[in-house]
């Protein structure tokens, strides 16, 4: 490693030592402790708020975004150092955000200079929480058939329609929304990408309960919502390109995440719950399933690494976000299935007096959505067949 | 190390791909197979492979090799897998060279490595005794005798054992069957009294041999490594074999996959290309992902061997296990999606399926390597 990078590492280490509160270096025990930021976010502790604020002010919630837009302005190598230092002290994520994962990359590519200067720093500092208004009751996989309309009224658009499955719509401050600005042209061409405040008159939400018991998503209604013209990103009618670009980022993010307990490997969980006999997991048949899963999971992790290294080496990676989304989410579902098997009847617990009771069964149920949200497995296989394999008529 | 090929490695890949496609394509394979060639490969090809630096891929330049390392060896193996090229690459250039590099004395290295690199010496590793790979099962005995040892036992599935100029034999000098301690490696002349070798043609048209050792006298100087401590050398040679077989299977998988996707684009049924059927598209797309995964684990395993990573054994087993499963899927899907023509001898896809089957068994399938990996990881 170069001297400059070593220097950066020691400075980073010192800064984190001084600024990451001790409570933020303990493993998160439940999803409630995730920091999402935003106007109405209820921090679970002062430490959680301090951690977000300090990282946000430094731009390290988005280390590689330019400094001019609230980012850390770090090179890829520096960002890698930062993340390894964060891992070293077992720091929690300071901020989770659709703004960081989805909208930010799209604005960096398609936004005007004013839009970037205005929206990106708010995302970096965790001031505004965003939700994603893509799916509609009649338009899921066939997203481009969406019907929510935005009528040009001279100085503003008038938005009418309904979105569904909008994650955290009831908690978000703003929405990035796909709307139809031109109903007369082919379906992919009349779509625009619009940003607006969820507090605007005419916006309402109704939470929907999931099989996991939680209600992270909503029906979202727009009834004559006035949206200033300058809130349109890119060119009217060209929103589909932005929508697709954003989806590739969303897919990589979903493919890379696993919802389970990241503190222990599956083998460690199995060793703890089932026990070892002569150094191997006592349930031989289940051990075989675990081994086969771990082989796939490791091969997948190495593939993610290779895709990143290939991109860094300036070699093309193609439509691989679909591969990562498809394979990663199917693996994660399998992983939760196996963790349930390892847990046996304990895994079936739905609620209880102890912290964490019911987490496994709810996590297992939540993971079922991984292969649906952000484009289903089938849709991602379609994309691989069409874009990568160039199969006919796909 | 980044999981990408550097410039030198990319050059090796390109030259290996070009070489085997031109010099040893599947037509050459068929010729050797159909003529029941006694050697099982073309010696002239092996000479050319030596000139290309392939035979000496692991041999340091000081000993006349090209020193491309395991990543280089894997890239050559991948091209071999793509073309089903027949050669003693695995037995001599990978298994024997590794054993000599890890366990050989300076004299042994000087005596054998240059000849391996120049293509003048063929070697074979005689370790397995059971039909399912169990390397610590060594019942062959080596009893002290004169200034050396007397070997007795039977070895099976000795790759290229029928043509080897020198055998590396694992035998027990102490301990009980199954112990890893007490195994010693010997360099044995196949023409020595008491050695009998029977060629065993396999389903993939490659040759393995059964080697019977009956009171075979070897000299003390023919011990490879230390007496009783051969296990570590054997493990390293087998790991090199596992990683390089993973690379060969990657070539088999990639070629089968590409051939199949091409067929989906050309074959018409119901008035359309069969590749327009979504049921087939999804299978092809899934297979694409699997081949990418096999590529990642293989490269990591080869790099780990080059780096002397202490997890090299784990990665070798990971690559062998995953690579084998992917090769199974790729070749079986290949046959199925070709329909009737996939079952014909005239068409290549079945040849790849046979090679995949044999390569999966060699040095352990997913059951063996998965178990080994888990034990190495503590579960
Ligand atoms: C937990 C969760 C959170 C979500 N969050 C958001 C959000 O924040 N914002 C947002 O906009 N949306 C969100 N979604 C919606 C999600 O993007 C859609 O559910 C998804 O795109 C699928 O659409 P659908 O539900 O209408 O299913 P459908 O499109 O009706 O699909 C039904 C089934 O048909 C299959 N299918 C459909 N078309 C094809 C085809 N061409 N070929 C083969 N199979 C096909 C699908 O794969 C699926 O199995 C969320 C969903 C979930 C589950």
From TrEMBL, chain A:
Gene3D superfamilies: Acyl-CoA dehydrogenase/oxidase, N-terminal domain (1.10.540.10), Butyryl-CoA Dehydrogenase, subunit A, domain 2 (2.40.110.10), Butyryl-CoA Dehydrogenase, subunit A, domain 3 (1.20.140.10)
TM annotation in the entry: none
Ranges where the Acyl-CoA dehydrogenase/oxidase N-terminal domain occurs: 46-127
One cellular component (GO) term of this entry: plasma membrane
Keywords: FAD, Flavoprotein, Oxidoreductase
Superkingdom of this protein's organism: Bacteria
UniProt domain Acyl-CoA dehydrogenase/oxidase C-terminal: residue ranges: 237-389
Cofactor(s) the record lists: FAD
Domain Acyl-CoA oxidase/dehydrogenase middle: 131-225
Alphabetical list of Pfam families matching this protein: Acyl-CoA_dh_1, Acyl-CoA_dh_M, Acyl-CoA_dh_N
Keyword Oxidoreductase in annotation: yes
UniProt GO MF annotations: flavin adenine dinucleotide binding; oxidoreductase activity, acting on the CH-CH group of donors
Statement: the UniProt record of this protein carries the keyword Transferase: no
Record-stated family: Belongs to the acyl-CoA dehydrogenase family.
UniProt xrefs under PANTHER family: ACYL-COA DEHYDROGENASE (PTHR43292), ACYL-COA DEHYDROGENASE FADE29 (PTHR43292:SF3)
Protein name listed in UniProt: Acyl-CoA dehydrogenase
Organism: Glacieibacterium arshaanense
UniProtKB/TrEMBL annotation, chain B:
Domain (Acyl-CoA oxidase/dehydrogenase middle): residue spans on this chain: 128-214
Keywords: FAD, Flavoprotein, Oxidoreductase
Sample GO molecular function, one term: flavin adenine dinucleotide binding
Keyword Iron-sulfur attached: no
Residues annotated as domain Acyl-CoA dehydrogenase/oxidase N-terminal: 6-120
Acyl-CoA dehydrogenase/oxidase C-terminal domain residues: 228-369
Cofactors required: FAD
N-terminal signal peptide: none
Stated family: Belongs to the acyl-CoA dehydrogenase family.
Name of the molecule in the record: Acyl-CoA dehydrogenase
Organism: Glacieibacterium arshaanense
């Amino acid at each position: 490693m170069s001297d400059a990078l070593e220097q950066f590492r020691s400075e980073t280490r010192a800064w984190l030592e001084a600024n990451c509160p001790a409570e933020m270096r303990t493993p998160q025990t439940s999803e409630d402790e995730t920091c999402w930021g935003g106007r109405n976010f209820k921090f679970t502790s002062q430490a959680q708020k301090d951690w977000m604020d300090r990282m946000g002010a430094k731009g390290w919630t988005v280390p590689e975004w330019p400094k001019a837009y609230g980012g850390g302005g770090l090179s890829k190598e520096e960002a890698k150092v930062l993340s390894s230092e964060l891992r070293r002290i077992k720091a929690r994520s300071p901020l989770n955000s659709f703004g960081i994962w989805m909208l930010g990359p799209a604005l960096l590519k398609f936004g005007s200079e004013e839009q970037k200067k205005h929206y990106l720093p708010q995302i970096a500092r965790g001031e505004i929480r965003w939700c994603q208004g893509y799916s509609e009751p009649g338009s899921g996989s066939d997203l481009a058939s969406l019907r929510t309309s935005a009528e040009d009224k001279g100085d503003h658009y008038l938005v009418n329609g309904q979105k569904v499955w909008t994650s955290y719509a009831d908690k978000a401050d703003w929405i990035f929304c796909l709307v139809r600005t031109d109903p007369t042209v082919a379906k992919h061409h009349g779509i625009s990408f619009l940003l607006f405040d969820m507090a605007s008159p005419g916006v309402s939400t109704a939470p929907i309960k999931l099989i996991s018991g939680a209600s992270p998503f909503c029906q979202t209604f727009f009834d004559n919502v006035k949206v200033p013209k300058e809130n349109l990103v890119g060119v009217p009618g060209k929103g589909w390109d932005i929508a697709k670009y954003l989806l590739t980022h969303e897919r990589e993010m979903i493919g890379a995440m696993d919802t389970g307990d990241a503190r222990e490997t599956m083998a460690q969980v199995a060793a703890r719950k089932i026990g070892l006999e002569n150094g191997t997991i006592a349930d031989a048949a289940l051990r075989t399933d675990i081994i086969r899963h771990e082989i796939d999971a490791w091969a997948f992790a190495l593939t993610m690494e290779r895709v990143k290294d290939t991109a860094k080496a300036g070699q093309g990676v193609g439509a691989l976000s679909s591969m990562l989304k498809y394979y990663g989410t199917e693996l994660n579902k399998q992983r939760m299935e196996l963790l349930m098997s390892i847990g046996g009847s304990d895994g079936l617990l739905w609620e209880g007096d102890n912290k964490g009771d019911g987490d496994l069964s709810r996590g297992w149920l939540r993971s079922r959505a991984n292969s649906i949200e952000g484009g289903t497995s089938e849709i991602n296989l379609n994309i691989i067949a069409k874009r990568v394999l160039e199969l006919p008529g796909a | 190390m980044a999981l990408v090929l550097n410039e030198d490695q990319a050059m090796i890949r390109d030259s290996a791909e070009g070489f085997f496609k031109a010099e040893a394509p599947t037509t050459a394979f068929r010729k050797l197979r159909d003529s029941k060639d006694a050697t099982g490969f073309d010696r002239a090809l092996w000479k050319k492979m030596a000139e290309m630096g392939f035979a000496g891929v692991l041999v340091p330049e000081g000993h006349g090799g090209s020193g491309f390392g395991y990543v280089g060896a894997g890239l050559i193996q991948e091209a071999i897998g793509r073309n089903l090229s027949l050669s003693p690459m695995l037995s001599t250039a990978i298994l024997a060279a590794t054993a000599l590099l890890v366990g050989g004395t300076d004299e042994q290295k000087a005596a054998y490595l240059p000849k391996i690199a120049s293509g003048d010496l063929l070697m074979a590793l005689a370790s397995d005794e059971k039909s399912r790979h169990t390397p610590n099962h060594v019942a062959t005995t080596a009893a002290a005798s004169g200034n050396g040892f007397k070997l007795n036992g039977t070895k099976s599935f000795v790759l290229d054992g029928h043509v080897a100029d020198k055998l590396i034999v694992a035998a027990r000098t102490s301990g009980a069957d199954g112990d890893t301690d007490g195994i010693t490696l010997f360099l044995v002349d196949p023409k020595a009294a008491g050695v009998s070798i029977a060629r065993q043609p396999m389903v993939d048209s490659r040759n393995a041999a059964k080697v019977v050792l009956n009171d075979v006298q070897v000299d003390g100087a023919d011990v490879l490594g230390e007496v009783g401590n051969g296990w570590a050398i054997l493990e390293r040679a087998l790991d090199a074999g596992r990683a390089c077989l993973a690379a060969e299977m990657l070539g088999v998988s990639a070629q089968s996959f590409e051939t199949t996707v091409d067929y989906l684009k050309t074959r018409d049924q119901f008035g359309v290309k069969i590749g327009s059927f979504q049921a087939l598209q999804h299978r092809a797309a899934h297979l694409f992902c699997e081949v990418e995964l096999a590529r990642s684990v293989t490269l990591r395993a080869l790099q780990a061997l080059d780096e002397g990573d202490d997890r090299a054994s784990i990665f070798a087993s990971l690559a062998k296990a995953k690579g084998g499963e992917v090769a199974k899927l790729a070749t079986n899907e290949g046959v199925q999606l070709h329909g009737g023509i996939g079952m014909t001898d005239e068409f290549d896809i079945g040849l790849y399926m046979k090679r995949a089957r044999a390569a999966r068994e060699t040095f352990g399938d997913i059951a063996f390597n998965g178990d080994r990996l888990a034990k190495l990881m503590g579960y």
